[in-house]
């Protein structure tokens, strides 16, 4: 079979020693030569109506061969950008690096009155009151109220303030689609982040002819305009949630099926720090502690009241398995700050690019604009992402990253893929999807050996579902090459 244009297969010449040992232990000869596998993957794409120019891939076989098609062509990686963030953060900060959010009091307590302000200092943790507790959205802040009461505070003479200087600049990247900025996946990041920087919009049920709508968590800045009307026809069940770009008024309009149960949607907050402080202020006042709001001269010394700490490793499963953009952008900005920058989006690119050049032989043209992959201006290549995964496999922190990836037919964004397939439970990978782009990068684990891969489609709109099908079929071909069969798993 004639090799497709731009398809290469070459020997592994710079394999880390641990991976060399794995390759030497491999005993099953491949059923397809590297070039045969590559040609078969290109052929599968064509069968699905994808153009050869729209796909690129890079795969490391256990024999040491690299099978590539346009492996060095720069493309938008979509959410596979999160692999770069996860690896660079783990390598340079470590899995145990602490993300701290601190509550300080600026003043002394006299007869139950705090003669000063409360100050919340943000450290870029993306998940204060994350989704671990769906019943109580503010579960992680409640101990702070207990601490305030435990110190005998009945009234705060000053204000509740936020210190967000740790990360500078806007939490919204200019490359992101303006018409989607209120959707949960475009949530802004900041030094303070609460409830994924979203408002939960709880819709339904219909009671006495009115559609119930509640906003959670409640805070003084929020207002609601409920324009929903009930309908008895399924075909008319259509509603819309809107928020003015810089405002806190949420409008819910349209028609809601009368027999439908409760549904929860999400809409972003316009400012993470304002959202955090206003929610915390309401919690304080609801607890019976009065806040006077007087502007006072700052105290000379700040005293700690409480601290919330999370490790970097604890944030990765949500970031990778659920592809949570906010987590990736926040961690990327934290890395930028910790490596000498100001924590802005602009500080992220040089740090990530430098790490990729040093550890993964990144080419000169690589472009990194954000951490989440939402920017369509990002440019990575399939070979680079495959080499990154090889670095992961031999790094002391590699298990932390691999454990954070979705597992085929098991969880995360791969929960519904590879079902009734020999690859069920055998693929650990990161997915990526933006308009006209579908990416998949990870490892196939077969007979004790991990084969790293990256498959990217970038082309016409409306073809991403076919691209996902191509990726799944390509990994089945890889699994066959690794000595497996194409029979469904039982």
Could you list some keywords that capture this structure?
single chain, 490 residues, alpha+beta, seven-stranded antiparallel β-sheet, four-stranded mixed β-sheet, 11 helices
Secondary structure layout plus pairing:
Elements: E1 7-10, H1 17-25, H2 34-47, E2 55-60, E3 66-69, H3 81-92, E4 98-106, E5 109-110, E6 113-114, E7 117-121, H4 142-150, E8 155-156, E9 160-163, E10 198-207, E11 210-216, E12 223-231, E13 238-243, E14 249-257, E15 263-268, H5 272-286, E16 290-291, E17 303-311, H6 312-321, H7 325-338, H8 345-360, H9 382-393, H10 398-404, E18 406-407, E19 427-434, E20 437-446, E21 449-458, H11 464-481
Parallel strand pairs: 6-8, 7-9, 8-16, 12-14
Antiparallel strand pairs: 1-3, 2-3, 2-21, 4-7, 4-17, 5-6, 10-11, 10-15, 13-14, 18-19, 19-20, 20-21
Helix pairs in contact: 2-11, 3-6, 3-7, 6-7, 6-10, 7-8
Structure overview:
28% of the residues lie in helices and 26% in strands. The chain is globular. The chain has a domain at 98-311. With 490 residues, the protein is α+β, with helices and mostly antiparallel strands.
What's this entry about, in short?
By secondary structure, the chain is an alpha+beta fold. The chain has a domain at 98-311. It has 11 helices and 21 strands.
């Amino acid at each position: 079979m004639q090799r497709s244009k731009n398809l290469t297969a070459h020997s592994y010449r710079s394999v880390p020693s641990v991976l060399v040992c794995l390759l030497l232990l491999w005993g099953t000869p491949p059923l397809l030569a590297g070039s045969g596998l590559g040609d078969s993957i290109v052929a599968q794409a064509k069968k699905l109506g994808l153009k050869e120019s729209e796909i690129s891939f890079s795969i490391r076989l256990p024999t040491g061969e690299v099978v590539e098609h346009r492996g060095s062509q720069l493309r938008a990686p979509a959410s596979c950008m999160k692999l770069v963030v996860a690896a660079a953060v783990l390598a340079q900060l470590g899995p145990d690096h602490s993300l701290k959010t601190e509550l300080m009091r600026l003043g002394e307590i006299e007869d139950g009155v705090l003669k000063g302000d409360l100050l919340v200092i943000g450290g870029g943790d993306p998940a204060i009151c994350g989704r671990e507790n769906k019943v109580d959205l503010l579960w992680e802040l409640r101990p702070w109220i207990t601490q305030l009461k435990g110190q005998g505070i009945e009234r705060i003479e000053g204000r509740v303030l936020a210190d967000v200087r740790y990360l500078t600049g806007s939490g919204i990247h200019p490359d992101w689609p303006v018409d989607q900025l209120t959707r949960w996946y475009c949530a802004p990041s900041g030094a303070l982040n609460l409830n994924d920087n979203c408002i939960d919009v709880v819709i339904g049920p219909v009671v006495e002819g009115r559609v119930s709508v509640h906003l959670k968590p409640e805070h003084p800045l929020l207002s609601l305009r409920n324009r929903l009307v009930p309908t008895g026809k399924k075909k008319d069940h259509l509603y819309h949630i809107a928020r003015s770009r810089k405002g806190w008024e949420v409008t819910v309009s349209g028609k809601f099926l009368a027999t439908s149960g409760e549904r929860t949607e999400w809409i972003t907050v316009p400012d993470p720090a304002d959202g955090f402080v206003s929610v915390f202020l309401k919690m304080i006042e609801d607890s019976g502690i009065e806040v006077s709001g007087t502007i006072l001269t700052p105290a000379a010394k700040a005293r700690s009241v409480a601290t919330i700490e999370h490790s970097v490793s604890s944030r990765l499963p949500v970031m990778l398995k659920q592809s949570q953009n906010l987590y990736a952008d926040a961690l990327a900005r934290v890395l930028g700050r910790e490596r000498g920058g100001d924590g802005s989006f602009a500080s992220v690119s040089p740090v990530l690019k430098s790490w990729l050049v040093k550890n993964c032989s990144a080419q000169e043209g690589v472009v990194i604009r954000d951490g989440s992959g939402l920017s369509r201006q990002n440019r990575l290549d399939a070979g680079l992402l495959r080499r990154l995964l090889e670095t992961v496999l031999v790094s002391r922190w590699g298990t932390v990253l691999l454990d954070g990836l979705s597992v085929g037919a098991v969880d995360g964004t791969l929960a519904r893929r590879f079902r009734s397939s020999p690859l069920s439970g055998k693929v650990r990978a990161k997915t990526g999807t933006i308009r006209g782009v579908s990416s998949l990068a990870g490892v196939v684990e077969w007979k004790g050996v991990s084969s790293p891969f990256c498959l990217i489609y970038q082309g016409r709109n409306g073809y991403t579902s076919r691209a996902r099908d191509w990726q799944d079929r390509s990994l089945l071909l890889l699994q066959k090459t690794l000595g497996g069969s194409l029979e469904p798993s039982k």
